[in-house]
């Protein structure tokens, strides 16, 4: 179970803060991300987990370089097949350690928000995650 928790964390880190964006993408600033995860067989009512909310400062450099959150140290997760057009994006996530996991991500962005849906397959189970992000204002120094 500990391995599975770390794997879910790796997937969440990679997907929770996607910074796929073009020149007319999200505006730098403080964003609030709401993540809803569902994994059949997990506690919290029919596989649904309570939504997780984080706040994160999205910098101009991150937007320019299309950065991603870093996976945990024991993970080799990689982002592949990235596509972006007209405010829509998609990519794949592939990991082999700490265990095999493959996923697809699709979403959209505006100047003040990001929405995305992710599906991850691992060890005979599938996890889905929906994320929305909205700009709250400027980052606090």
Task: Please tell me about this protein's structure.
The chain has 141 residues and is mainly beta. The chain has 2 helices and 7 strands. It is globular and about 40 Å long.
What's the SSE blueprint?
Elements: H1 2-16, E1 29-38, E2 52-58, H2 60-65, E3 78-85, E4 88-95, E5 101-109, E6 113-122, E7 125-137
Antiparallel strand pairs: 1-2, 1-7, 3-4, 4-5, 5-6, 6-7
Low-confidence parts lasting 5 or more residues at pLDDT below 50?
1-7, 13-23
How far apart lie the N and C ends? 38 Å
What is Rg?
15 Å
**What's the total helix number?**
2
Q: What's the count of strands? A: 7
Largest sheet: 7 strands, antiparallel
Strand/helix succession: HEEHEEEEE
Derived structural class: mainly beta
Task: Provide the helix percentage.
Answer: 10-25%
Please tell me what the overall shape is.
Answer: globular
Please state the oligomeric state of the protein chains shown.
Answer: single chain
């Amino acid at each position: 179970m500990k391995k599975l928790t770390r794997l879910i964390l790796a997937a969440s880190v990679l997907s929770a803060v996607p910074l796929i964006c073009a020149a007319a993408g999200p505006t730098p600033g403080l964003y609030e991300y709401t993540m809803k995860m569902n994994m059949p067989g997990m506690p919290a009512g029919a596989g649904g987990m309570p939504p997780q909310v984080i706040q994160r400062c999205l910098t101009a450099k991150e937007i320019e370089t299309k950065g991603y959150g870093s996976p945990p140290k024991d993970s080799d997760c990689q982002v592949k097949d990235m596509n972006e057009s007209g405010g829509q994006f998609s990519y794949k996530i592939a990991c082999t350690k700490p265990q095999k996991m493959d996923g697809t991500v699709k979403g959209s962005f505006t100047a003040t928000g990001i929405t995305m849906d992710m599906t991850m397959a691992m060890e005979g189970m599938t996890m889905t995650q929906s994320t929305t992000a909205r700009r709250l204002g400027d980052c606090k120094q």
